[in-house]
Structure formats: C-alpha cells, structure tokens
Amino acid sequence: MAKVHQCGEIRCHRIIPFDQRYCDVHAKLHAHDAYHNVSHKQRLESYKIYNREHRDQTANAFYHSKEWQHVRDYVVNRDMYTSGVSGITLTDHDLIVDHVVPRRLCEDLLDTNNLWCLSRREHLAKTKMEKHIAGKPNGDNMLKHLNRQKWAVYIDRQLAREKHRDGR
C-alpha cells in the first residue's frame, strides 16, 4: 500500500499521497507559495548565503551567541511555544523570538521582558511595519513606546488586510 497522509491545510483531513503537501483543493491556494516548492537542503543553503552576504554581521553574531540561545530557549519555554499575537501554538520551525522594541533601539538585548514569540508570518508583518514607522519623523521614538498589546492589534489588523486583499 502506498504511503499517505492528511492534507497540510489546517482543518482539512483529506487523505493524499505522501509526496504531496496539499489536496487538490488546497494546492491551488498554495501554488504561489514558492517557499514550499524548495527543498529543505536548498532552504538551508539560502539561509547560509543570506546570513553570510546580506545580514548585518553584528546581528548575525548576536543571534548565534550562546547567551542569545539560552535566552531564546527561556522565552520559548516561558511562552510555551505560543504566538503573542494569535495565541496559536507554534512549531519550532515556525517560531521566531522577536524583540518587541527593535534590537537596534533597546538597551538590554537579552531582556526577556522585551521578547515574545511570533510566527514567521507575524514576524514578517511586524518587520514591514517597523520599517514603515522608522521612516516617519520621530519614528524611532514611536517604536520605543509600542508594547506587546499594541503590536498584537497592529499585526492582527495587517494580516487581516493581507488575507482580505489576497482573497483567502
């Protein structure tokens, strides 16, 4: 008997061949998602290239330090792998420990009160908004005063707008 599994779409329980990620209905919705059409090995290689050639080397060194790894593990366990925006339990692959006040603006980079868990999608939305706010007059001051609750509302609204725009 051929190997099978459930469709990768949340709440879809259709049984599909093991070599497919989504059933025929949901495959159409995810066809644009190039991230899933790349092998794990290719993804890891692209991360290495990004870290080596494009990422700020100070940030790269910080995020690979033992101190950061210990603090990150503490925050993940403290928050029980739960998103600070949606409240959904995240897999380690989808989880990003993020600085509420951006790293470049905070005094203590390892302050656990300034860290929370976000999904990759939520983190991307927050990063885009941070760049937009930072470009405004007095933007850095605004970013210093945004707390988790305000960010959660802003991120949730942004994701809802994107969802509505994409017609999902």
Could you name the key traits of this structure?
two-stranded antiparallel sheet, 168 residues, mainly alpha
Describe how the helices and strands are arranged.
Layout: E1 4-6, E2 15-17, H1 24-27, H2 40-53, H3 57-63, H4 66-78, E3 95-99, E4 115-119, H5 120-134, H6 139-144, H7 148-166
Antiparallel strand pairs: 1-2, 3-4
Largest sheet: 2 strands, antiparallel
User: What structural class do the secondary elements suggest?
Assistant: mainly alpha
Element order, helices and strands?
Answer: EEHHHHEEHHH
Nearest-angstrom radius of gyration? 18 Å
Termini separation (Å)?
A: 35 Å
Strand content: 5-15%
Short description:
With 168 residues, the protein is mainly alpha-helical.
Explain this structure:
This protein is 46% helix and 10% strand. The chain is built from 7 helices and 4 strands; from the N terminus they run ββααααββααα. It has helices at residues 24-27, 40-53, 57-63, 66-78, 120-134, 139-144, 148-166; strands at 4-6, 15-17, 95-99, 115-119. The chain has a two-stranded antiparallel ribbon. A two-stranded antiparallel ribbon has the order 3-4. The radius of gyration is 18 Å and the shape is globular.
